[in-house]
Structure formats: C-alpha cells, structure tokens
Amino acid sequence: MSAQRGEFGSRFGFIMAAAGSAVGLGNIWGFPTQAASNGGAAFVVVYLMLAFLLAYPVLMAELTLGRHAHGNMITALAKVSRNGTQRGLGTLVGIVGIFTASLILSFYAIVSGWMIGFGLAYPLNALGATDASTWLSEFSFNRNLLLMLVFMALTMTVVAGGVEKGIERWSKRLMPALIVTLVALALYVLTLDGAAEGLAVYLVPDLSKIWSTDLIFNAMGAAFFSLSLGVGTMLIYGSYISDEEHLPTLGAQVALVDVGIAVLAGFLILPAMYVAADRGVMIFNEAGGLLSEDTLIFVVLPALFDSMNETGTVLALAFFGLMSIAALTSSISMLEVPVSFLVERFQWGRLQAALVATVIISVMSTAIVANFDALFGLVITISTRYSQPLLGLALCLYAGWVWRRDLLLKELAKNEPLIEPTLFMKWWPWYVRFVCPTIVVVILVRTIA
Ligand code: PFF
C-alpha cells in the first residue's frame, strides 16, 4: 500500500522536504531581529535549547504517528485509539488540523505573493518598466489578489506532481539553492560598510536580556510555527518515510537544519540592516527596537537595495528569490495536508485533489485580501497562536497517553540498530506524556491571559 500512496525516495529527499516545510518566512524575517533585540548570541543558545526541549519532541510525535499509520492525521489518530470516543476525538482533531493548515496557507500565500512581486519589481524597474514595477511593489487589492493566485498556482503544480516527483524533487532542487543564495548574500553584505556593527549586535551575548519568562514563552510559541507543528504537515511527511529509516535521527536533522538556517539568516539580516543604517535608512522603531517582520522586508531592505543602483537590483532579485523559495517549500507542505486527506479519504487523483484544495484555499485567501484590515491579523492569531499549540497538545496526548506504550516503542524501535533501548527511547515517551503537554498548556494559558 505504501508504494501506491507515495514515499520519499531517499533520506536526503525527506530531509530537504521536511526542512523545506520548517524553513520559511519566519526564519528570515522573524528570528534574526528577535535574537538581536533579546540578547544576541545568548538568545540564539536559548532558542536552540527550546527547539530541542519542546519542538523536537513534538516533531517526533508527528513523525512517529504518521509513519506508524502511513496515512493522514485522521487515520493516524484512529489507528492508535483504543475506543470509539478516542477515535471520534481523533477525527475532530484531524479535521481541525486540516482546516488550520488551510487557514495558515490562506494568509501565507498573500505574503509569499508579495515576495514574488518585489522579486519581479526590481529587474522590471531596471528594464525601464517603472509602472509595472511600482504596481508590483505597492499595496493594492488587485496586486495582492493576482500575486496570491500566482503563488497558489505554483504550490499546486508542485503538490499535484506527487510525493516523489513533485514535493521531493522540488525540495531537493530548491533547498540547496536557498542555502547557496543565503550564504552568498551574507558573504557579500559582510564586506560592506556598517556590516561589522550589525554582526556585533547579533552576536555579542547579553545575558541580562534572556531571563524574561515572556521572552522564553514567545520563543517557544515561535518554535511551533517554525517547525510547522500541530497541523499535520510533519505527520503526513512522516507517513511517506520508509520503515527502514531511523526516525529520531531524521527528526533531529530536520530540527538542526531549521535552526541552522535561522541562525545563518542572522548573518545576512543584521549586517544588512546596519549597512542600511550606514546609508541613512531608519532601522529602529519609535520604542528604539529594531524594525522587523514586514517593515524589515518591505521597507528597510528595499531602501538599502535602492541605495545601491545595479548591485541593488541583483541583490534584491537574489533576496526576494530566496524568500519566495523559502515560502514555496513551506506552502507545499501545508497544501499536502488537505490534498492527502482528499486522496486517501475519497480516492481522488492527486491532480483533482490539489485543484479542489487550491480553489478552496484561494477563496479563503481572497476573503482575507478583500477585508485585509479586519481579517489578516485575526487569521494569523487564530491559526498560529491558538490552533497550532492546541493541536500540538492533542498530538502529544495521543502519542503519550492514547497510544499503547509497547506499540509505540515498537514503532520507534523499527530499524533501531541497537538491541538495548537508546536514551531517546527511554526518555521521549515519558517526556511527550508529561513534560510537553505541561509546557504547551502553560504557553496557551499565557496566550489567553
Ligand atoms: N515553518 C514555516 C515558517 O517558519 O515560515 C511556516 C509553517 C509551515 C507553518 C507549515 C505551519 C505549517 F504547517
């Protein structure tokens, strides 16, 4: 059955696809400035620890549940359930997961469309097409709608190609391209005036800033988004892993690539911001903090590129190309959630499933574009601050409490090279049962309070 439903052809392919899901806009527009404003290298170390203390165990819950069932989230939760109530609740969790993945994609596609727009605007401007260039880089209903649709079409094309020929093939091409571009851009920017100051802000540790509990819990919440947890993307990717593979190692590699690229992005973003400051661009907000997120990407960096003439055009093309790639490898994993459900539940072909899911999500996205002020922030808050941690909690409870311990250990021990249980096998089942749910509940309580 597994061959029929698709499987990653290689370990490298899986790591690129799962890391592609994890590495997204968040790594580049959020992490570096957050680190710089909150203790620099000290924050980087805390974040690394949090990623491994909270996000990695939840990632493992998803991968293990998925690989065990070789099916989507609803099938996976039903498979480990021991009675009708657990199965019913599992179905509910699975449906909320599919809905949340679609909701995240519906706002993500809008922002990703802007990346494509800015990426095209620079070369068009250089070629003299200033009207088109301005249209692509200015906020308007028509631009937002068109670029969102273009991005959704790209996502659909990859997903419709299937696990190996679509998702894996494109991840194996795009992720190395992303890493090479990121390194090349960072190396270039580091040679410019002002870069050293940015590097110092990023790297000089300030221990006094990292003990704020607010900061730690925000970072934990961010780690959930960063590793694409809760909504079933990692679960479905896990379901396409062959039984031959050793899951704890694969999961650790994915988490390492995700954190590694976030850290690497800091070597580009912070120096670039201080190079911009050196050229007179404002990089601080009124409260004195570094500008971040959309203002960083669509105001500060474009101001830097504008100050550099032809070089600026090349840099802008490379940078927005990089952002578009990061966005695309994440969005394909989100679209795969509803698509795999439609394929498995209704035996639809992939093309039909991808088409239907894309149309539904594009309609949701259009509603956001048409009511941007009212809906954009709201959808982000509901899907990432509430729904993702809640779903993560449910997944921990299914892996830790519902799934029979001996069967869980059997799944983990598949292809375990050692006869003796490893450290991971001794600790993780206990950890995912008690520690993870407690941490997630605390995060949720703090979000609500
Ligand atoms: N991990 C992605 C990022 O950091 O941008 C976002 C994401 C992807 C969230 C897939 C959720 C998801 F299912």
Report what the structure shows.
This protein has helices spanning 2-5, 11-22, 25-29, 31-37, 41-69, 73-80, 84-126, 130-137, 141-160, 163-189, 195-203, 213-226, 233-239, 247-278, 293-306, 309-346, 350-370, 372-402, 405-413, 423-448. It has 449 residues and is an all-alpha fold. It contains 20 helices and no strands. 4-fluoro-L-phenylalanine (PFF) binds at residues 21-22, 24-27, 101, 104, 225-226, 228, 231, 233, 330, 333-334.
Strand content: under 5%
Average pLDDT taken over every residue: 94
Bulk shape: globular
Low-confidence stretches: none
- Provide the CATH top-level class: Mainly Alpha
Number of domains: 1
Structural class: mainly alpha
Give a quick set of tags describing it.
Hydantoin permease, 449 residues, mainly alpha
How would you briefly describe this protein structure?
The chain is built from 20 helices and no strands. It has helices spanning 2-5, 11-22, 25-29, 31-37, 41-69, 73-80, 84-126, 130-137, 141-160, 163-189, 195-203, 213-226, 233-239, 247-278, 293-306, 309-346, 350-370, 372-402, 405-413, 423-448.
List the helices and strands and how they pair.
Blueprint: H1 2-5, H2 11-22, H3 25-29, H4 31-37, H5 41-69, H6 73-80, H7 84-126, H8 130-137, H9 141-160, H10 163-189, H11 195-203, H12 213-226, H13 233-239, H14 247-278, H15 293-306, H16 309-346, H17 350-370, H18 372-402, H19 405-413, H20 423-448
Helix pairs in contact: 2-10, 2-14, 2-16, 4-14, 5-6, 5-12, 5-13, 5-14, 5-18, 5-20, 6-7, 7-8, 7-9, 7-16, 7-17, 7-18, 9-10, 9-16, 9-17, 10-14, 10-16, 11-14, 13-16, 14-15, 15-16, 16-17, 17-18, 18-20
